Structures are given as C-alpha cells and as structure tokens.
Amino acid sequence: MSSSSRGSNRLILLSIGLLTVAVAAIGLISSPAVAGTVDNETCLACHDDVGENYAMTPHGIYFQQRPALRDYGCESCHGSGGRHIEDPTPDNILNPANSDQFGSSILCTQCHNTEQFDEWEFSAHHNADINCASCHTSHAKVGHTMKKPTPELCYDCHSAVKAEMNLPSHHPVREGEMSCSDCHNPHGGSVSLTMDDSGRELCFSCHAEKEGPFVYEHAPVSEDCGYCHTPHGSVANNLLTQNEPTLCLNCHSMHFHATVVSVDGEFEVPQAPERASRSTEDGWKRVMLTKCTQCHGAVHGSDLPSQATSTGGNALTR
C-alpha cells in the first residue's frame, strides 16, 4: 500500500471518529444506539400509521433512492431500535419531535444543510426554543409536511400580527395573494426579513415603481419605508402608521396658510368656485389641514418640478 493510500485511510478513520464524537456530544446517539440495529420493516410492523404513507413521504422517497438508507432509514432519525424492540417504551427510542432545539433541529440540519438553513442557530425561532417538529411533521406525504397552512400556522404564535392583519388596510395575506414566507424566512437569516433583501429593498421587490432614483427625492423613501408604513395592517389607508396630515406633520411644519383667517362672508369666484370654501373663518384650515397628498401627490419622489417657485421645484406635487 502506498503512503498516499495509508494517509487517505487514516484521514477517513479520523473523520469517522470525529463525527461519532460530535454526534454523541449533541445527544443524537442515545442509550438505544448500543443495542443493535433494526430494519424499517420491523419498525413499520408496529407503527402501521406511519407505514401507511411512508413511501410517499419526503424521507421515504429519499431513503429509497439511497441503498444505505433503504433498509435502515428509520434509525437515521430515531437511533438504534434494538432496545426498543426488547422493551417497547418511548424511553428506549429517540423521538426528535419531543426534543428541544438542541435535539431535533440539530439532527434535521445534518441532512437539511442547504443555504437557507445556514443561519438557523441565530434565528428568532431557534432562540425561542422552537424546533423543527413545532411546525413540520416528518411522516406526512410530500407537500403536506407543514402542520397547518400559512398564515394559520404562524398565527398560532404571532397573535398580534393576526390582529393587525384584520385591520382595514393590510397586505393581502388573508386573501391568499401573499404568504408570510414572501417577506419572512422562518429558518434563519435576518430576524425580520427574508432572502438577501432588507428594509426598503424587500419592499421594492414588489413596489418597484416607488424605488427611483428620482430627481426630487423624499428622504424617508431613501432610508426606510417603515418611517411611514407598517407592514402588517393599519387603520390608516395604504398601511400608513398615521392618518394625514398627522403623519406628515411629524416631520414637516404646517403651511403658514393654515393659520391665516380668511375673508368673512360669501363670494363667488367664477373661474374656480370651489375656492369659495376659503371665505369662512376656518376655510384655510380646512384646505391646508386635510390630506397633504391632495396637492403633494408624488410623495415617493418625482422627476418633474413643482410649479411653486418658493420650494425650488421640489414640492413633490407631480
């Protein structure tokens, strides 16, 4: 045997040894693991409820494609069944569904190790002691591994979000046009958002027309959509955090016209009769303190200058 072959064999043996130690350290090898192996047929002879759909489950299909797991696939997740055969009590077999996030989740991510699970350990669900079995059932048919469809599954924990989704203005989740996972990644990544997007970039993936760049920018749009909008639901139209003009007045002072007392009495303006409303004492206030977007319609940004010379053209009126 060449020196390179001996080196390769030592490396393989060392890797197997390290893997065994690592698996034992995280509790994936339980006491039944030393009692011998049991094939799938033996397991399914008792667990006929699992066996009924086993071949149509993601795990069953996966195991059938791999000879090493075809006959002993059950033990890949449940550990050795030898002791459980001798004494068929739950204590003598590993049940990932009853483990905490340091049990089943680590076991699942041994196989489910694609990019979407890279940051599971840092996710809000992991830190809240949620494990894979809290949302998934591994013995269900393909396409039915979620315990409930979304958003109902998410609402079981996120009751405040459920309430917000029932407010008059909301994203169309309850109508079935969107799913929670369109914006949120339950398996990790950013605490709030999904994919590689964050903040305004995620919003622009649907609302591309608001992105710009514009000649005349509205500063909050360039920073964070959350300054003006709340994502789950609001009593104000367009998911605004407050109604107009209160929302706008958080940053902008009111127009000086709003404090001007108009001319008393009634008069007619032939060219613009609607302006007669300004003839009352509170007329200016009604005109200038209703909805800012009646005049400033391009609130997300504009390429066209306004017609007002006092603003330098950047009043976002068109």
Q: How would you characterize this protein structure?
A:
Helix content is 30%, strand content 3%. It has helices at residues 3-25, 40-46, 48-51, 58-64, 67-70, 74-78, 82-86, 104-108, 124-127, 152-155, 159-165, 200-204, 219-223, 246-249, 283-288; strands at 169-170, 216-217, 233-234, 301-302. It starts with a helix and ends in a 16-residue tail after the last strand.
What's the short version?
Helices cover about 30% and strands about 5% of the residues. With about 325 residues, it is mainly α.
Describe this protein with a few key phrases.
disordered N terminus, about 325 residues, 2 domains, single chain, about 5% strand, mainly alpha, two-stranded antiparallel sheet, two-stranded antiparallel ribbon
Which structural class do the helices and strands define?
A: mainly alpha
The percent of residues in helical segments reads 25-40%
- H/E series, N to C? HHHHHHHHHHHEHEHEHHE
Strand order in the sheet with the most strands:
1-3
Number of domains: 2
Q: Total strand count, please? A: 4
Mean pLDDT across every amino acid position: 78
Based on CA atoms alone, the radius of gyration comes out at: 31 Å
Distance between the termini: 81 Å
Q: Give start-end ranges of low-pLDDT stretches.
A: 1-35
How would you sum up the major sheet? 2 strands, antiparallel
| Number of discrete helical segments | 15
Outline: elongated
How large a portion of the residues is in β-strands, by DSSP E?
under 5%
Topology of this structure?
Layout: H1 3-25, H2 40-46, H3 48-51, H4 58-64, H5 67-70, H6 74-78, H7 82-86, H8 104-108, H9 124-127, H10 152-155, H11 159-165, E1 169-170, H12 200-204, E2 216-217, H13 219-223, E3 233-234, H14 246-249, H15 283-288, E4 301-302
Antiparallel strand pairs: 1-3, 2-4
